[in-house]
Design a protein that fits this description.
Elements (H helix, E strand, L loop, with lengths): L2 H4 L10 H27 L1 H20 L4 H26 L4
Helix pairs in contact: 2-4, 3-4
């Protein structure tokens, strides 16, 4: 065994190529489905309606609190960007599907 094989990234030996192949095969099977699911969570008609309602309510509340149109618009934009990430992670992590 050569020196590289003896201490490969902190391990005693190189990983088994067959195990690596198995892992890569599983990953290549799963990634397209995961991307499709994420896309569906973010861009479905139901999500669009929910985002629009959330944005309208948020914007209205900011205006009611005395903010200018520009201030309310900027904060609403930021709010919607956090909703996208939060919603995706919440649904994806819990395994729920709408």
């Amino acid at each position: 065994m050569n020196k590289h094989e003896e201490n490969w990234h902190g391990h005693d030996r190189m990983p088994d190529p067959e195990k690596i192949k198995e892992i890569l095969d599983v990953v290549s099977e799963k990634i397209p489905g995961l991307l499709k699911e994420i896309s569906g969570l973010l861009y479905s008609p139901k999500s669009a309606k929910q985002y629009a309602e959330a944005a309208a309510i948020f914007y209205k509340e900011l205006k009611g609190a005395g903010m200018t149109n520009d201030q309310a618009f900027e904060l609403t934009s930021q709010y919607l960007s956090t909703l996208n990430i939060g919603k995706m992670m919440g649904k994806f992590g819990s395994g729920r599907h709408d």
